[in-house]
Amino acid sequence: MSGREGSTGRRGRRAGRRGLIAGLVLASLVGAGACTVEEGPDRAKPAAYKEGTLRVLASSELADMGPVLDQARQATGVSVDLTWSGTLDAAEQVASGKADGKYDAIWLSSNDYLRLRPEAAGKLANETPVMSSPVALGVRPEALARLGWKPEDVTWSAVHEAVTGGKLTYGMTDPVRSNSGFSALVSVASGLSGAQAALTDADVKAAAPRLKEFFAGQRLTSASSGWLATAYARRSDVDALVNYESVLLSVNRDAKSPLTVIRPRDGVVTAHYPLTLLTSAPAGARESGRALTEYLRGPEAQRAITERTLRRPVAAGVAPAAGLGVDKRRELPFPGSPAVADGLLASYENELRRPSRTVYVLDTSGSMSEEDRIGRLKAALTELTGSGSSGTGERFRDREEVTLLPFGSKVKRVRTHVVEPGDPGPALDGIRGDVKSLEPEGGTAIYSSLEAAYEQLGKGGGDAFTSIVLMTDGENTEGVGAKHFDAFYAALPEERRHTPVFAVLFGDSDRRELTRITELTGGRLFDATGGNGSLAGAFEEIRGYQ
Q1: Is there a contact between 22 and 40 (Cβ–Cβ < 8 Å)?
Q2: Whether residue 337 is found in the same domain as residue 231
Q3: Mean pLDDT, range 327-340, rounded to an integer
Q4: How far from the centroid of its chain's Cα atoms is residue 416's Cα?
Q5: 425 lies in a domain?
Q6: CA 139 → CA 132, 168, 190, 267, 326, distances in Å?
Q7: pTM of the entire structure?
Q8: How many domains, the chain?
Q9: For 234, phi and psi rounded to 5 degrees?
Q10: Judgement on whether residues 336 and 363 belong to the same structural domain of the protein
Q11: Do 229 and 262 lie in a common domain?
Q12: E strand segments, 250-306
């Protein structure tokens, strides 16, 4: 489906390590002969420039462009070597100079954030929009009927009113890690603040009470549109999705009950997907980029783009695909400075969104002593406690409840810490201390420990996103088995069954066993084995789903 994306907001200062996320999010393109996929920054050596091949740092939702790029190669002779990245991570790589000599072009959903970085101005040779997709709201038919809305008349204020009245719930990707989520956040903030120009700190502050009310209705969060759509299909208590129009229409391709796609009347933020050549690119690459851009903006490619991806064409004379409304919407103002953008994200992360409750089910069996696995686990978890210079999204959030549940042959202990706003130190120090004391010993009681995690979540209250993170380096050898866990899970109250298990493949863990657990609970499997990624990278990527 279109719109699959990786993390787009791991905020700029440690882009080398953080770019790993994009490689974990997407599988290789199927049938996209023009494209190769680089698996993130752990690749030993970037591809050297090769005549006729354009090295492109790209938003990962562009995976659906594979067939179009294959046609482009046949027509122009230009192949495209795509490296997936989040939009904001890519902006940091360009602005910092890390992209120089490694990539010839960038192809992001938007260059808006990059333009906020003055040091990036001299890095861009030119940029050419290839297609567009606005932020929109997709609503279940029964919810639309209940609300009595006429889609053409809906505003962001009307959506806010429905949420505060308890009449609408929705899912949205994490704006700290997903550009569709960031664009949605800007759309809502602009719409509810009434901003007539670029968003300012004053606009955000004025809208904060209404924004907090709006985000109280969010029931699903995700680092990727693909997982968000899958999770949404499992939930009958989520009425709508906020995402790019193309993503919502792609969901409808497989939906028994299609969403009504609404572009709020008071305006939206739109992704224009500009193919942007870098000034550091060799002359031959710039020539290849111009040839590719010219082809992609031609009528044949534009028709293929809109039909395949459900994005809007930018070439005159090419009609949008069926289902894409032609009535105009105001383009809502983007933040006017990096400080405003970062402040909006920080407010969302620590104040506006619902808090998180997470149980970390940690294998500390005897095998974790091998290859310093226990040391890598301690380092990964300690990193999530952050430091004084940690940016937004780089440590446990304010208001977050973090439970550590280490296990061997049985659960060893259960420790819970709540990160208090304004005074996060005690909780973060407590987590560091508990992590430091982890010792490898005993067998591997995976299912018994998962049952204990669900029981732990049942003891708490409050309105929060809940999740379980399972890290194991082996297979179940102790305690109850899979069938017992299946029966236990089936007997849980429906609300607790909405808690997904995000499992991390590590060491010698059993992929089939962990896949089965994540599919049962609606979670996801993250690979931290060998060259597929680091344990710290997997833990950080999971943050976008919590």
Answers
A1: yes
A2: yes
A3: 89
A4: 26
A5: yes
A6: 21, 9, 21, 17, 19
A7: 0.86
A8: 3
A9: -85, -15
A10: no
A11: yes
A12: 260-262, 270-271, 274-278
Angle between helices 299-309 and 283-296 (to 10 degrees): 70
> What is the structure's pLDDT at 391?
65
State the CB neighbour count (10 A cutoff) for residue 31. Answer: 8
Find the domain containing 437 and state its range: 355-545
Q: What is the 3-state secondary structure (H, E, C) of 140-202?
A: CHHHHHHHCCCHHHCCHHHHHHHHHCCCCCEEEECCCCCHHHHHHHHHHHHHHHCCCCCCCHH
Looking at the structure, do residues 98 and 214 belong to the same domain, yes or no? no
Write down the number of H helices and E strands in the chain: 21, 19
How far is 146 from 130, CA to CA, in rounded Å?
38
3-class DSSP state of 391: coil
Q: Which strand ranges, in their side-by-side order, compose the sheet holding 53-59?
A: 35-38, 79-85, 53-59, 105-107, 274-278, 124-129
SS3 for 402?
strand
Residue recorded with tokens 């420990």: 449
Nearest C-alpha neighbor of 107 from the set 135, 123, 84, 134: 84
Contact 186, 335 (CB under 8 A): yes
DSSP helix/strand/coil, 121:
helix
Q: Given the structure tokens 């050549």, which residue do they identify?
A: 277
What pLDDT does 47 receive?
Answer: 73
Residues whose CB falls within 8 Å of the CB of residue 498, separated by 6 or more in sequence, listed in order: 235, 237, 466, 522
CATH (domain of 207)? 3.40.190.10
In this predicted model, what pLDDT tens digit does every residue of 144-176 receive, in sequence order?
Answer: 999 999 999 999 999 999 999 999 999 999 998
Helix (H, G, I), strand (E, B) or coil at 28: coil
Q: Is residue 324 part of a domain?
A: no
- In CATH, what number is assigned to the domain containing residue 429? 3.40.50.410
On whether both 282 and 265 belong to a single domain, the answer is: no
Rounded Cα distance, 313 and 246, in Å: 12
Q: Which residue from 506, 461, 454 is spatially nearest to 480, judged by alpha carbons?
A: 454
pLDDT tens digits for 386-431? 875 566 777 899 999 999 999 999 999 999 999 999 999 999 999 9
Closest CA to 347 of 463, 204, 481, 476: 204
Name the region of 52 (left: φ>0; alpha: ψ -120 to 50; beta: rest): left
3-class state of residue 484 by DSSP: helix
Domain check: are 340 and 447 in the same one?
A: no
CA distance 136 to 469: 31
How far, CA to CA in Å, does 190 sit from each of 206, 245, 491? 11, 18, 44
DSSP 385: T
Structure-token match 């059993």, residue found:
510
Alpha carbons 445 and 453: distance in angstroms, whole number: 12
Q: Is position 319 within any domain?
A: no
Evaluate whether residue 9 is within a structural domain.
Answer: no
- Statement to judge: residues 69 and 88 lie in one domain: yes
Query: Are 536 and 439 in the same domain?
Result: yes
- CA dist list (Å): 194 to 197, 327, 332: 9, 21, 10
CA 172/CA 259 separation, integer angstroms: 15
Here the tokens at position 289 are: 């980029």
